[in-house]
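Hi, here's the filled form for the chain we discussed.

Project: internal
Contact: R.S.
Residues: 350
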Amino acid sequence: MQQSPRDGREGDVLAVVSQSGPTVSFFDVVSDRHLGDVRVPAEPHELCFDATRRLLWCTLTYRSGYYHANGGRRTEVAVIDPDARRIVELVDLAPEHGPHGLALDPARGRLYVSVEGKDDRPGGVVVVDTETRRPVGRIDTDAPGPHWFAIDPAGRTGCATNKEAPFVSIVDLERDTLTARAEVPGSEGLAVSADGAHAFVAAPYADFSGVTGERPATGIRVVDTRTASVVGTLPTEDVVLPVHLTSTGRLLAGEVRVAPDPASRLGRQAPGRLTVFHAGTRERLGHVEVGLFPLTIASSPDGRLAYVACVVSSTVDIVDLETLERLARLDIAKLGEPGAHGLAYLPRRA
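And the returned structure, exactly as it came back:
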């Protein structure tokens, strides 16, 4: 009998943010059964799982709305016990605000949280000690709104993408300082290669306002983090927001397919696309259709399964990355929880 890609995952859980719920929902990864929810303050965005302490971190970014159209910025990160399904603590980063991107260095016990700038300082990355759950530092990124942040597995190099600023901020995590700026025409999601030598950056910045005029070609810029230069581009048909690198070296890009609509800042949506590349050879391996407006991508630890959260349809597509077939779709909206966003794969307790 052929083995299912879900075999051997009993006890593993997928956590999904409902941005407008506002909740974090939990699902059995084998059966897709809804296990329960944790209600959080508005408005949750991203998730990061600390397997060492078995805690789930969740950024609370705005009081309502989204980037460029929000009802005020929040200052907290929620710490959740995923097994008891309760909030352990709300960590207040004030005076920092607009926390969004999360990256974990488990070896050093550090969590990196991107925050938006204010009149008196640029955006940056707050360093949080995961044992004390308190901020212990800040790294300026020289841009007003670093929205996504990623680090290499060794915890030496970090990169922040900047929606409006025409560069990616490259930081030295051993010295906690900005070291370079790579010229990229406004950027969205990103991933850093296993050796830290390259960052894969979605560009240009997603603009669905219908403004006409020449815009840079859509795709993923390959940035050499040592020279802070763009050394290649992986072309895509449509604008990309989330980028994710699996443990097996597959580079996943969430393409948003949209037409300008004067009645909506987010435009008129069509089904999105998960496009898969080989990170090493940069070969395009294929694609599969997903829900409306893919915004976050996660994968199983073995790199076999991809999870694509689509915020407008409030769905999560589960994709077999070997066959590029969609196995299932979690309909978060049916739970009464609109706006699927952050994702985290939680292996069962050892």
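Let me know if anything looks off before we file it.
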